[in-house]
Structure formats: C-alpha cells, structure tokens
Amino acid sequence: MDIFLQQIINGLVLGSIYALVALGYTMVYGILGLINFAHGEVVMIGAMVALAAIHALTGTALPGPVIVLMGLLIAIPACMLLGYGIERVAYRPLRHAPRLAPLITAIGVSIVLQNLAMIVWGRQYIAFPPLLPNDAYVIAGASITLLQIFIFLLATAIMVGLIFLVKRTRLGRAMRATAQNPEVAGLMGVNVNTVISATFIIGSALAAVAGLMVGAYYGLAHYYMGFLLGLKAFSAAVLGGIGNLGGAMLGGLLLGVIESLGAGYIGPLTGGVLGSHYQDVFAFFVLILVLVFRPSGLLGERTAERA
User: Fold this and answer.
1) Residue 208 burial (CB < 10 Å; 0-12/13-18/19+)?
2) What letter would DSSP give residue 16?
3) Could you tell me the residue ranges of all domains in the chain?
4) How many whole angstroms separate alpha carbon 49 and alpha carbon 166?
5) Which among 136, 297, 137, 122 is positioned nearest to 223, based on CA atoms?
6) How many Å is the Cα radius of gyration of the chain?
7) In terms of DSSP H, where are the helices of the chain?
8) Rounded to an integer, what distance in angstroms lies between the CA atom of residue 156 and that of residue 254?
C-alpha cells in the first residue's frame, strides 16, 4: 500500500509538470490547429537559461530560494521572446499553407534549438545546485518532499490562473473568438495576429516554469531534455483531448500517475525482465491506445462554441 501511495504522489507531481507543458500544445492547437513540436525545446531553453542564471548567482549572499526565483524571472521573458520569435518567423508566413508545411517547420525549429543549446551549453549534463529546502514528510508510509509539494501547488495555481485568464479576461475572450472563427473575430475588431502571438507567449512562459521544475525535480538539465518531455506532454494533450484546456490538465495528471505506477510495478509484474527505466514506454503505449480507441481524447476536442 505504501508503494502504491508513493507512486501516486510521484505521479501527481510529475503529471503536474506534464500538464503545464501540454497546455502549451493545446492552446496553440486550439487557435491555429497546429502541433507546435518545438514546444519541448522551449521548455529546455527555459531550464538552461534558468540554470545559467542560477549558477551565475550561486555563491552570492542571496538565499537559495531567491536565487532560484531570479533564475525563473530571467528564464520566463527569455522563453516568451523565443515563443514570439518562433511564431513570427517560422509559423506566421505558413499560416495559410498546407498543414504539412508548418508541421515540418516545427520539427526543423526543434532541431535548430537543440543544436543551438548544444553549442551554447555543451553536451554535458548541467547540475541543479541544492538551493531549495528538500525536507521530507512521511504520510501513511509514503514520503513527500517540500520540493514536490511546491511543484504541485505552483503548477495547480498556474493552471487555475490560466483558466481564469481564458474564461474571464478580455484577452481570453479574444482567444476564444479567434479559436472559433479568425475571420469573423477580425471583423469584430479582434487583432488576430496579436492574439496568436499572445498565445505563443503565454505557452512559452508556462514552458519556462516547467523547465525549471524539471531541472529542480531531477537535479539535472540537458540540451536534449525537451524532446522526450515534449512528446510525453503531447501524449498527455491527446489523452485529455487536444484543444481542451481541462483535457490537457487531466491528461497530464493521468499520464504522470500511469507512468509512475508502471515504473513501480513493471518489475514485479514481468518477473524482473523489465525495470523502472522502461517507464517511458507507458506514455507512448497510452498514446497508441487513445489514438486507436478514442482519437478525440477523454474529454473530446473542445468545439468553438464551448471554448
């Protein structure tokens, strides 16, 4: 029972990170119908920029949490600028092109960002300094750390804030109108280009936060870290129903729990043939099952009227 509870806790923490990244995918898809496969690399850039700032500030008189916060405050605008640049340079000229063109462009942007990160930060893993308190608490035999609690609560607060932005603000109404019909929204006074750019910028800000969370959680960052994380987050978005904000959140949490439970029990179930390092298999196994049996996802694709 304690192993089950431990894996549930680990899965919810990991799933909250997947959900943040999945929101970036689903927001862009909901408005443009585009899968931004470069989004995982934006997460990676956020982690690397934050770590670079943190390493530069480590050793100063500043407290550890303040150093991490400053690293995040540097990474967020950097990723927002990167997201705007990607939309403006790579996607906007192809907005009315056949669907295959922006898809190939997204893959190309992903490869370019990976190689740029490798040139700037090198191939080696970059360690996250132990600046955050990581005291552990035992609940019914399962251990949960302060870092895990902070990651889950921060991710939850950000997701609630995003829902509020989309549902209750003027920008959110403009985003929903653009998702429903860009041409009509433009005739009603909505600046469609500004709304689309804002969508990329918001998604990139979430990616920066998720990148720092991943670096803090695993204690490492790497120029290739965004590739697999992006694919998993895309799987989470498809699982919940891509284009649906609530679906992305649900899909991320479910995928994290499924992956953690699989990592915890795959060894005993296979007699030791497969170990916990096969946990990545579950994300793509879930993706295959969803695409075969329920392509619209658990919550279904959000229609324009309900967006």
Assistant:
1) buried
2) H
3) 19-225
4) 28
5) 122
6) 19
7) 2-32, 39-57, 64-85, 100-121, 146-168, 170-180, 182-187, 192-218, 225-240, 245-269, 280-293
8) 14
DSSP 86-125: IIIIIIGGGTTS-THHHHHHHHHHHHHHHHHHHHHH-SS-
299: its two tokens: 């919550």
Q: How far apart are CA 239 and CA 232, in angstroms?
A: 10
Q: How far apart are CA 277 and CA 297, in angstroms?
A: 27
Q: Evaluate whether 167 touches 27 at the Cβ level (below 8 Å).
A: no
Contact (Cβ atoms closer than 8 angstroms) between residue 204 and residue 36:
no
Q: What is the dihedral of CA 174, 37, 263, 143, to 10 degrees?
A: -50
Query: Do 255 and 15 meet the contact criterion of CB atoms below 8 Å apart?
Result: yes
- Closest to 19 measured CA to CA, from 246, 200, 290: 246
Q: Which two tokens stand for residue 9?
A: 């806790």
Q: What is the dihedral of CA 143, 145, 148, 152, to 10 degrees?
A: 80
Q: What letter represents residue 5's amino acid?
A: L
Digit-by-digit pLDDT tens for the chain (307 residues) are: 578 898 999 999 999 999 999 999 999 999 988 899 999 999 999 999 999 999 999 888 899 999 999 999 999 999 999 999 999 999 999 988 888 899 999 999 999 999 999 999 999 999 999 888 888 888 888 899 999 999 999 999 999 999 999 999 999 999 999 999 999 999 999 999 999 999 999 999 999 999 999 999 999 999 999 999 999 999 999 999 988 899 999 999 999 999 998 887 776 766 666 766 777 888 888 888 888 988 888 886 544 444 3
Backbone angles phi and psi of 68, in degrees to 5: -65, -40
Amino acid at the residue 214:
V
